[in-house]
Amino acid sequence: MMNPVTSASALSGLRPQGCTNLKLRQLMRRVTQHYDAEVGKSGLKGTQYSLLSYVLKLGPIRPGDLAREMMVDASTLTRNLKPMVAAGWLALAPGGDGRSRLVSITDAGRQKRAEAQRRWRVAQEGLNQLLGSDRVLALHALMDEALERLSPVPGVHDE
């Protein structure tokens, strides 16, 4: 297996084969399974842990702004908010005007997030051990660069 740090120069004369989208989706499923197995011990899915973390950091926040920060569409956010509000981990309150709402984290949500964060740390350390810290660092750098290069063009909105 090639070292991810030196593999770019070794592969410079080759053309990519296969579907990048498929490979990324397969990797994402495996990584998600890894995190969900550990974070799930707290009673949360990985997506719920992320949602609590975003609201803790940014809230109170309007749902539309939260969706943009999380890079999800509004309908996905609404679907993910419902069980979190029902569980008492998040709250929806009226916003600055009569038409807006604000999402905030409750005390129970803070406690649930802290519990899940401990499990997330175990998952992260496990992934670091499985892949090796050098690979994880290289993967993070590659993903950050790819995200920057694939950023949407200003003024063009995704459907």
CATH class categorisation: Mainly Alpha
Count the domains. 1
CATH architecture: Orthogonal Bundle
Please name the fourth-level CATH homologous superfamily: Winged helix-like DNA-binding domain superfamily/Winged helix DNA-binding domain
What is the element string, with H for helices and E for strands?
HHHHHEEHH
Q: Radius of gyration over alpha carbons?
A: 19 Å
SS-derived structural category: mainly alpha
Sheet with the most strands: spatial strand order? 1-2
CATH topology: Arc Repressor Mutant, subunit A
Distance between the termini: 39 Å
Task: Characterize the overall form.
Answer: globular
State the share of residues found in helices, binned by percent: 55-70%
Number of strands: 2
Strand content: 5-15%
Largest sheet: number of strands, sense, barrel closure? 2 strands, antiparallel
How is the quaternary structure best described? single chain
> Mean pLDDT, as a whole number?
88
The helix tally amounts to: 7
Residue stretches low in confidence (pLDDT < 50, at least 5 long) are none
Give the SSE layout.
Elements: H1 7-10, H2 20-39, H3 46-58, H4 63-70, H5 74-86, E1 90-94, E2 101-105, H6 107-131, H7 133-149
Antiparallel strand pairs: 1-2
